[in-house]
Amino acid sequence: MRSNRLLWQMIAVGAVATAAGIGLGLLIDWFPVAASTQAGPIDTLYDVLVAVSVPFFVLVVVVVLFSAWKFRMRPGQENEDGPPIHGNTRLEVVWTAIPALILVALCSYAWAVLNDVERSKADSLAIGVYGQQFAWTYRYTGPDGKAFSVNQLYLPCTPTGGSTATGAPCRGRPIRFSIRAVDVIHSFWVPAFRMKQDAVPGIVTTQRIQPTRLGSYPVVCTELCGVGHATMRSTVHVIPPAAFDAWLARKGQGAVPGAGSTTAHAPGGTA
Amino acid sequence: MTAKLRAPGWYRATLFVLLGLGFCFGLTTLLRALYDFKPLVDGEAITTVSLIGVPLFFLVGLGAFDYWFYWAAGRASRPEDHSSHGAHSWKDYFRVNTDHKVIGIQYICNSFIFMFIGGLMAMVVRAELAQPGSQFLDGQDYNAFFSVHASLLIFLFIIPVFAGIANYVLPLMIGAPDMAFPRLNALSFWLLPIAGVMMLASFLAPGGAFASGWTAYAPLSTTQPLGQIFFTVAVQFAGASSIATALNFLVTIITMRAPGMSFWRMPLLVWANFSTSLLVVIATPFIAASQFFVLLDRALAFNFFNSTIGNGIDGNVLMYQHVFWFYSHPAVYIMMLPGFGIISEIISVKARKPIFGYRMMAFSLLAIVMLGFTVWAHHMFVSGMQSWIRIPMMITTAIIAVPTGIKIFSWLATLWRGVLHMDTPLLFALGFLTMFTLGGISGVMLAMVPLDIHVSDTYFIVAHIHYVLFGGSLFTIFAGIYYWFPKMTGRMYDETLGRVHFWATFVFFNLTFAPMHVIGIQGMPRRVSDYAQQFAGWNLAISIASFFLGLSSLIFLYNMVASWRGGPRAAANPYRALTLEWQVSSPPPIFNFDSIPTVVGGPYEYGVPGAVHGIFQSPAEAVPAAAGASTERARE
To answer: pTM, whole model, 2 decimals?
Structure first.
């Protein structure tokens, strides 16, 4: 019954390693700060994926290590062979069916999350986003109905806790970005919002987010767009509605109270 | 001298290159004169035409087409002419040679040369990334370095080195004297150095080397300097080589198996290359097409991809990505399935056990081939394509993990209760099992659309692809090279150095690529020479680890060169393996088998008393002996 004892040893080691792995996976602060309603479901999806993945990885590693430890050739075994086991139909059915079921479940969950984060909402604020080598431009409609362009993104968000300091929670108006590319493909990404969308010449693409946290966050281009791709960055400022309306009335001119700087996230070497 | 210039070889090749340059110059200038283009002599146009034309002149000069011309001219056939077969001195490796063993060595050495060049480029990239800001590469140069790095390692290393290993081993494994089309095989090889030299030569082009990534997304690629064309055309040559080799493998496997070698008695390496060849033949024309679109757009203003809003030109930018990924996703399996085959051989022989679930191993390969064609748009979840197509692509991408999982679990079950010979090939195989599992897990994560939206085009992708292609493909390549080194060279490699190489590679590989998952999720985009200050610490650590990873490959280089020159002589069958390549001398005779073997059992019957896979008797003599050693798999 050497084989049975070995199995129990492996299961014990595997269980401990799985618990440790999942614990570690959940403890690590993987994501940047969350500043949109989209962030929560996506971060949770990631945690679930980590928790489901760890047992599979542990299984493979534990079997490999135990085999290397217990079944390595000892002196005197040079001409021995292992038992001629050709297969086991039940086992093969199990390791085909179980992963398939888990994957289908994960896909269903991910589909639900996708519908959640991409849901279009009434009363969205429409903002045009233009990618061009190597800068982002944002197009707003002012109170007088005339459009104007700026190179920093401002979004309104009503503070929910009384504080208007950076990092204070807020409930933002849903935003709909209409994204266009002037020359080559770019990709519009605010890591704090978790959503990303390519800007493609010839078509208009859409991204929806809803801010939940006051502050300033980096905007990054993630599609290689040429020599200046690395420095094609901008900033999004999530500010209280009053400040936003005043800024909108000024057509983006002048300083904005409450719009912090992004020194913490500022791209290096570009000042 | 005249005789040398008339005979196939490097002198005639040089002459033909000069002739080719003259021809391309003349043709381009003549056409421009007819169209009245100004200026009449245009460097870019001549370069573009020369890149296509001169390699063909070179191949004719080298002698790759000699026999076909001779045959086409209707001269008397010479079926028993083996003058170009086999190697008697090192010079025979530098000419058109029809021996699959010589071609295999040519492939492998050529591929490793480009691996070291591509690896050095990665070192340059990591040096630039050691600190934020711009140190010694400007944006365009940086983009060029990572683009050439990826292109060389994909098109000139991983894909062809597998073709090289299979070229050497596969005909021996199925008991064939050579590949089905030896001259086509020779031509396939000689297309490769052309593609590689062309990619490197792009650094000499005005404006620098191609810098739009190995993906060459339009319309960035169609608006890049001249260097882009070097990539566009080089991919055509590498692709033509792949397709020709794949056809050769298919015909060889289907028609040239030894008597008794049914499909269910084929070693899994043969199954793996059969599956890979199906992928190559079906998929590779698509990357050729995508690059022809770019070529026509850039050189002749076809406007496939020119679709800027409002200018009245209706190009379709997304079409490039669909066509490109219809090849380039299956290409990931082209770079992985042959490795699966290598691992199956090694694990079975080194664990001294039959492969667990042999038929499921073969079926899962075919399942990957089928599913591999249904997942391409998972590279385009944020591209702006029709949003509904993301869901079916997510499901197929997740489901392709099932046949891959079957393979992983079957290898684990093969190890279980074996007698493990823990030497270098098996260490790399076990390293592959664990690291590729990680790459597969991050692959399943990436299949989930909402998460992919966040991490697409970040360092998470860089981490994933290196776990798949380095921890996956490269580990299998190292395993295979060590495993068949005695067969190919007749010498043993140094076991101690092999182990040191494995542990150094394994440790520094993880130190280099594991942290990339973290900085990717944190928000660092890929393909940037400059990054936010918050990523500085991780990037410095990654760069330092990567330099050690680079150094570890020198151990491998030294081991291979020194062992090939002066290693101890290898026995014909040092591993007590059953497959046919080990039943002939090391290295094998010039026509592989003195008498054609007869296959009487499965390839992995280790532990079955008295089991044999092949015997060197004619089928008529073999029949009585075969009765007792049937391959029908005995289920436990």
So the answer is: 0.94
